[in-house]
Amino acid sequence: MGGAVSAGEDNDELIDNLKEAQYIRTELVEQAFRAIDRADYYLDDFKDNAYKDLAWKHGNFHLSAPCIYSEVMEALDLQPGLSFLNLGSGTGYLSSMIGLILGPFGVNHGVELHSDVIEYAKQKLDIFIRTSDSFDKFEFCEPSFVTGNCLEISPDSTQYDRVYCGAGVQREHEDYMKSLLKVGGILVMPLEEKLTKITRTGPAAWETKKILAVSFAPLIQPIHADSGKSRLVHLPPITVRSLQDLARIAIRGTIKRIIHQETMSKNGNGLKNPPRFKRRRVRRRRMETIVFLDKEVFASRISNPSDDNNNCEEIEEERREEEEKSISELKPDPPVNFLREKVLSLPLPDPLKYYLLYYREK
């Protein structure tokens, strides 16, 4: 699946193409896509294809095409504080993007069949939390992953506001998928070759909308144990945050508001004129001709039409070189993590500062 938009040179150009093609339509979805580089979730040998609008699969590892993920996120109508269940969570790329939107008071759970993919997803999540500048620009709902078949979720599990299934669902499993959803919730899944959005409008009332034609590998049927009983999947418990964690969220939020106010005040409500290139004046030069007469030397400026033509070409060449030099000198400043700088400047013990920074690397 994929190929709906042109490939990008980098993650931002890929997002620009998705926006232009109207796959990304809301600011929240755009911010999440830009914050996490798709290439970070590829194996090293396959990163050259990361910015193509194509699905990728290698062994048990799989990523859907960017146009599919963007349609899914738009259809889920994500908001801060919602609960989300990702069936077939894979590398954790989609779950991490959605976690940026859900915020610190959301719920973000994933079920993945393959244990090696779960370990890979946890590694990628740890790298994102420790090293990505995007982490400090959001309040993150960290995903939790469990291993198992998503068709064997324990019947006493909680229901969710938003559910996505990343494998093809047959009609016989439609009611099972619907049972995972709260009233008012949204389920997005590939149902019989159509990406489908189902909204639960009441205890037994549903609205269904077909989004686009897709081709997904089907759900893998459960393999029962020798006893004939299925192995139930127990989803992570929904826990209440500690007072210490709530204080960290509140302090970071306050610092971010202060930084925003300072930036707005400094930039005059954020409206700054874009940098303009200063073009240098190029002096026209003519070749001096030296004339020797006996023992006297006469200097004069002598030109002919061919000289003028050559001079014009040289002047134009100089002008281009000067402009190219000006452009190369106008490099963007390296990004600054203002939240980190503010926290480190606080009159607090170092252990508390690093707790506020989630012990992240610089």
From TrEMBL:
The keyword Cytoplasm applies. It is found in: Cytoplasm. InterPro entries: PCMT (IPR000682), SAM-dependent_MTases_sf (IPR029063). Keywords: Cytoplasm. It comes from the Eukaryota. GO terms for cellular component: cytoplasm. Residues 303-333 are annotated as: Disordered. Residues 322-332 have a biased composition (Basic and acidic residues). Belongs to the methyltransferase superfamily. L-isoaspartyl/D-aspartyl protein methyltransferase family. This is Protein-L-isoaspartate (D-aspartate) O-methyltransferase domain containing 2. It comes from Terrapene triunguis. The lineage of its organism: Eukaryota, Metazoa, Chordata, Craniata, Vertebrata.
